[in-house]
Amino acid sequence: MVASTTVTKKTLLIGKGLPPFEFIKPEDVVPAMTELLTELEQELINLETTVKPTWNDLVEPLQKLEDRLTWSWGIIGHLMGVKNSPELRKAYNEVQPKVVEFTNKLNQSQPLYQAFKNLNNSDSWENLDSGQKRIVESAIRNAELSGVGLEGEKRERFNAIQLELAELSTKFSNNVIDATKAFSLTLTKKEEVDGLPPSLLSLAAQAARDDGAENATPENGPWRITLDYPSFVPFMQHNKKRELREKLYKAFISRASGEELNNYPLIERILELRQQKTEILGFNSYAELSLASKMAPGVEAVEKLLEELRSVSYDAAVKDLEELKAYAGSKNAPEGNDFKHWDTSFWSERLREEKFSFTAEELRPYFPLPQVLDGLFSLVKRIFGINITAVDGEAPIWHEDVRYFQVSDENKTPIAYFYLDAYSRPAEKRGGAWMGDCINRAKIVENGKTTVRLPVAYLQCNQTPPVDGKPSLMTFGEVETLFHEFGHGLQHMLTKVDYAGAAGINNIEWDAVELPSQFMENWCYDRSTLFGMAKHYETGETLPEHYYQKLLAARNYMSGTAMLRQLHFAVLDIELHHRYQPGGEETVVDVRKRVAQTTTVLQPLPEDSFLCAFGHIFSGGYAAGYYSYKWAEVLSADAFAAFEEAGLENEQAIANCGKQFRDTVLALGGSLHPMEVFKTFRGREPNTEPLLRHSGLVAAA
Does the pLDDT of residue 494 top 50, yes or no? Predict the structure, then answer.
């Protein structure tokens, strides 16, 4: 037994290669990380003693040290997102303070900071390439933002804040997972599921069977509806029972705000600590601190962009709502005179069906996951010249549904790999979709031999799993989500930078990182791409032309509402991190109400506790950075416009444009400032016209 534990503990200490998931157990985490951190502390002391201000004597050994921590702690963080359990949480919570403590020591190392500054001012500086210079400059800035200049009580307080913020972030995220999991609605009468599509009835019957109702069937129930997106969203769109929609909606908007799982105190504390951290570092607000390492030049520039987009989208959103009310009224529905939040999805779906003569559910059979993957892989071969092949069985996996793929170049030489974990598993996997880096590209020198370590990405989605013998049939929205995450994956996998510190998405300013992901979404509407993947899972029939025309016509349906929703989140985020004073007269709920006056058309309900599930800014990396989606969408829309100008039907022009995009946006990683990368691709700075045009909010020129 002891030997076995030692073996599994050691698997977390290998420090390189693919993680051996089948051998990693929650009980290994504490002993493995404790041993690793002890070794790394000694390595840090040795490096501080011997460091010289040169690339080889400073950056390379520091990167090796950081790689070991990133590899082991990264695996544990990954499993927290995809295989969450009480045992893993306990271990994670025990180790996290030690990791934060070591990270603080590393970031606040005076010998390393001085060495970076001396390298920056040395005669050898001009011998470094742009990627190396950016890594050094970022290291100096990050050290300063991590409190390297602090001493005595200030440093102690700063480090205590970092530690508490990390713990609060984890707790916030766990509360959202638990609150989402805790609520379900079991329906037993057919009239209660009136209007629900077959795909949701199958999913709900499966959920009921998982919950102990062994005889549950899609036809006769019982049906278990949850707050997980594949269940919640179609229920709100299709269920005819208004009181059931109200019940589910109110459960959704009040997640993690109840007595047992209440994130409000955590939000207050997080904002208070961020403000304290800001003051210690000498900034006026946390937003200013956050933007110090982003592409946007300051809060004023962010608010200018958000207002430019808000002023265009607000009136469009007002018209959207009036149209929904009038439509409900024309059907003699009570909602015409008394429209509520839980009516929006339902009536917008009914109006969409009538306006464009199709339902989102009608399209599902044309988008089975295997076919969508084939279409996606054909697209990236067409525009970027890369080949993707399944290599399942060649890598350890954390769940039987996980797939593994190889990416190779024009010469069939492998250049990267990725995992795909496509399906929703609400009991253990957090909601949403994301790309994570498993392994970063880097040149590795071992025993005098130089090799290139190939990048590996994690792609996570939360779509409907295969049910009742059918493949995973995707909504068009889920197709867009897959393309989005694959865009992130492409930037991670197609990098040509050989320094881990600036390869892939590393060292890219946060507000530029969504460029390739949002760029890829545009291709879902490209004729050859769509027809290449949209084939009926039973008959093989290609999506009929009339559906394509309807998809195009419906693309900007309620786009004002969609844009305003994102702006509401972005403005609220900036407001909380730039003007809000924790402990002042105004509460976070008051701030949201104030922001909602100009960024929502239907004001939030009194019980709306959306902030308690706003993981992006309270447990993710988007604090004072949610605007990044819109900032980067300006870049991505303008980037796609380059392909439109080249001619989407002109294969040679598309291939040339794709090569240029691959050689700049996807290849250069964080080796150049994002504006320089964009200008190298586009030949000029970006503008907002393509985004507003793609959104249907301004007419095409």
Answer: yes
In a domain, 451, yes or no: yes
The residue to which tokens 């002109």 are assigned: 650
**Res. 694 pLDDT band, cuts 50 70 90:** confident
Residue 542 and residue 468 share a domain: yes
367/378 Cα distance (integer angstroms)? 15
**4: confidence class by pLDDT, cuts 50, 70, 90:** very low
Please report whether residue 162 resides in a domain: no
CATH number, domain of 653, equals 1.10.1370.40
Total domains, the chain: 4
Closest listed residue to residue 470, CA positions, set 184, 234, 226, 201: 201
Residue 485 appears among annotated catalytic residues: yes
For residues 375 and 486, state if they share a domain.
Answer: yes
- Whether this model's pTM surpasses 0.85: yes
Query: Is there a contact between 264 and 176 (Cβ–Cβ < 8 Å)?
Result: no
DSSP string for residues in 416-441: EEEEEEEE--TTTS-SS-EEEEEE--
Regarding whether 548 and 582 lie in a shared domain, the answer is no
Range of the domain at 404: 357-555+627-701
Asked if 359 contacts 353 with a C-beta cutoff of 8 angstroms, the reply is: yes
Distance CA 676, CA 130 (A): 11
**β-pair partners for 450:** 445
Establish if 166 belongs to a structural domain: no
Q: Please indicate, yes or no, whether residues 601 and 540 belong to a single structural domain of this protein.
A: no
Q: Which of 192, 485, 521, 633 is catalytic?
A: 485
Residues 92, 80: contact at Cβ < 8 Å?
A: yes
State how far the Cα of 140 lies from the Cα of 62, in Å rounded to an integer. 14
For residue 222, cis peptide bond before it (omega within 30 degrees of 0): yes
CA angle 436-374-540, nearest 5°?
140
Instruction: Kindly report, residue by residue over 336-381, the tens digit of the pLDDT.
Output: 899 999 999 999 999 999 999 888 889 999 999 999 999 999 999 9
